[in-house]
């Protein structure tokens, strides 16, 4: 077990509210994500899971409440700013640069890593070329880690659904995440693929990345998550270990009830 | 080996371009070469905005015009020569583009296209009606040619069209070089990311607004430089040269040549500057054939001439 800093959660959602017209997407949502854990976010369709990710990463502004990352209030900041702080997300339908190669996709992910020095770039200075070589080496490492090496020159649009989801995670990895938000990373995939991606997630966690994932695949959630939060109609109805959540009456009702 | 091949073919091209004016006795064809050069700069710079960053700008001719008018007015009112005015033309157009971009680049797709088109119309209206400054539709005559310059022992007076040709050739090559370096840098990579998928680009930390503004300002700035050149070449400018149809003309050249390539816009500009001339032989059918050529291109070669060649080359290599 890792020694966790119990004084400050890595990410904290304080009383977050979000409405879309008359539809309440999130209602007084409170959540703490601890450094180094794998947190699952589950709930029936339309319960507000992806909305949560959108609010955390700045793609949506909440109507009320705060998002606090590493002690800093990041509520309503621009998505790229939040990404620069180390909060990286994937999208529900593997969102990629489809017309570009797998390698190019990952190289774009490296944008976060350092400031662009305009003169260096335009004159193609030696330091820039060295930087490019380093990035290429890093990309090769990510390709190896995600088992995408043999696909590196394929266009993203030509990958199968499973490899696309893997690539989305690879691109997120390239952006050097402290907190990785995976939106349905293994949905619709075969058990073998699920295991291989979830093992990758475990290895990422072991290397220091905190992971929050939205999933419908209950095996993936129950077997790999340290903690699970359950949403229903925008309200959190459970928050605890897999065993606790499995036995929670409200959770069972939400999934089975009409 | 590949480097040597590239250097060799590039040198041959340069030599060909230098000797080109000697091939023709007709001054008119040299004039068309100069215009092809101006359009090359316009098409390339639009290519940076639309082709590489994916932002549809239908007001490129407006910045062409802003550059031309800034240059002409500085020359006529303050006696400044082209060598100074083109900087003002380019930077002036770039600044206007930056300010306008801050307002509208949050729009996407069709909304951006319409808004930029309206901006272009607005600029035309201002040029037409602010007669105290621009003399309106009557235009500004008497713009001086670039002041003489001494280069490698040769004195260039910019009286003959051939001299202008060599000057525009330098500008075209410099524009190409700068855009090449931008595209092959991390700045270019970010721009392409924005074109391909703006959401994902944001999610990995790319400040999309900043790069859109960069592409828009730089691209429009080059259009301004082309405008300055035009003013000091034709020696007369009026608003009619910088209207929405002209923006579309530049857009078509860029698409025809291949908008996601570096060479494409140049090929498109040269081809579509000369094509109407060659079609003159066909008399009344001229415009029909022009339109037909464009339609066939879009249907069979949507990535343009250079884009299409690249794709065929890639699929040829993959099969073998």
- Provide the number of structural domains of chain A: 2
Question: Would you tell me the overall average pLDDT of chain B?
Answer: 93
Number of strands of chain B: 4
The largest β sheet of chain B comes out as: 2 strands, antiparallel
Radius of gyration of chain B: 20 Å
Q: What is the total tally of β strands of chain A?
A: 10
| Main β-sheet description of chain A | 6 strands, mixed
Query: What distance separates the N and C termini of chain B?
Result: 21 Å
Query: Order of strands across the biggest sheet of chain A?
Result: 6-7-8-3-9-10
CATH topology of chain B: ABC transporter involved in vitamin B12 uptake, BtuC
Radius of gyration of chain A: 19 Å
Helix content of chain B: over 70%
Shape of chain B: globular
pLDDT average of chain A, as an integer? 91
In the CATH scheme, what's the topology name of the largest domain in chain A? Rossmann fold
The largest chain-to-chain contact, stated as pair and per-chain residue counts, equals: A-B, 34 and 23 residues
For the record, what CATH class of the largest domain in chain A applies? Alpha Beta
| Tally of separate helices of chain B | 14
Quaternary organisation of the protein chains:
heterodimer
């Amino acid at each position: 077990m890792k020694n966790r800093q119990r004084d400050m959660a890595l990410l904290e959602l304080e009383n977050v509210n979000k409405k879309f017209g008359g539809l309440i997407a999130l209602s007084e949502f409170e959540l703490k994500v601890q450094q180094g854990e794998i947190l699952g976010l589950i709930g029936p369709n339309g319960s507000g899971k992806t909305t949560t990710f959108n609010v955390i990463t700045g793609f949506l502004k909440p109507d009320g409440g705060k998002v606090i990352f590493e002690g800093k209030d990041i509520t309503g900041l621009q998505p790229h700013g939040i990404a620069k702080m180390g909060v990286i997300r994937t999208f529900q339908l593997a969102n990629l640069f489809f017309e570009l190669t797998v390698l190019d996709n990952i190289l774009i992910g490296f944008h976060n890593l350092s400031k662009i020095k305009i003169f260096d770039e335009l004159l193609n200075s030696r330091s820039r070329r060295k930087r490019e070589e380093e990035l290429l080496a890093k990309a090769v490492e990510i390709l190896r880690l995600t088992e995408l090496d043999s696909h590196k020159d394929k266009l993203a649009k030509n990958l199968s659904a499973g490899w696309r989801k893997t690539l989305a995670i690879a691109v997120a990895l390239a952006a050097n995440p402290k907190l990785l938000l995976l939106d349905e990373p293994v949905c619709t995939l075969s058990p073998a693929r699920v295991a291989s991606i979830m093992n990758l997630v475990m290895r990422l966690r072991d290397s220091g990345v905190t992971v929050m994932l939205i999933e419908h695949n209950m095996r993936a959630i129950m077997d790999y998550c340290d903690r699970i939060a359950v949403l229903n109609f925008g309200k959190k109805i459970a928050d605890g270990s897999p065993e606790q959540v499995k036995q929670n009456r409200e959770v069972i009702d939400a999934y089975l009830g009409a | 080996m590949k480097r040597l091949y590239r250097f060799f073919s590039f040198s041959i091209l340069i030599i060909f371009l230098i000797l080109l004016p000697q091939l023709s006795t007709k001054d008119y064809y040299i004039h068309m070469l100069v215009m092809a050069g101006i359009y090359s700069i316009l098409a390339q710079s639009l290519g940076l905005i639309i082709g590489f960053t994916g932002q549809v700008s239908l007001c490129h001719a407006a910045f062409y015009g802003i550059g031309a008018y800034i240059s002409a007015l500085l020359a006529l009112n303050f006696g400044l020569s082209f060598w100074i005015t083109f900087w003002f033309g380019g930077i002036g157009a770039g600044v206007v583009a930056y300010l306008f971009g801050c307002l509208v680049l949050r729009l996407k797709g069709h909304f951006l296209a319409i808004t930029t088109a309206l901006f272009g119309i607005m600029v035309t209206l201002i040029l037409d009606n602010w007669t105290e400054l621009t003399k309106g539709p009557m235009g500004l005559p008497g713009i001086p040619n670039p002041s003489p310059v001494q280069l490698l022992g040769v004195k260039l007076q910019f009286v003959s069209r051939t001299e202008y040709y060599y000057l525009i050739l330098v500008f075209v090559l410099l524009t190409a070089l700068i855009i090449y370096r931008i595209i092959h840098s991390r700045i270019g990579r970010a721009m392409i990311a924005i074109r391909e998928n703006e959401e994902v680009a944001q999610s990995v930390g790319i400040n999309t607004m900043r790069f859109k503004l960069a592409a828009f300002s730089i691209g429009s700035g080059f259009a301004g430089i082309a405008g300055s050149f035009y003013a000091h070449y034709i020696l007369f400018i009026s608003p009619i040269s910088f209207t929405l149809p002209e923006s579309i003309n530049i857009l078509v050249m860029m698409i025809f040549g291949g908008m996601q390539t570096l060479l494409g816009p140049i090929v498109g500009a040269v081809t579509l500057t000369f094509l109407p001339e060659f079609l003159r032989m066909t008399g009344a059918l001229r415009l029909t054939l022009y339109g037909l050529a464009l339609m066939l291109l879009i249907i069979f070669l949507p990535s343009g001439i250079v884009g299409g060649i690249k794709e065929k080359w890639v699929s040829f290599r993959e099969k073998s």
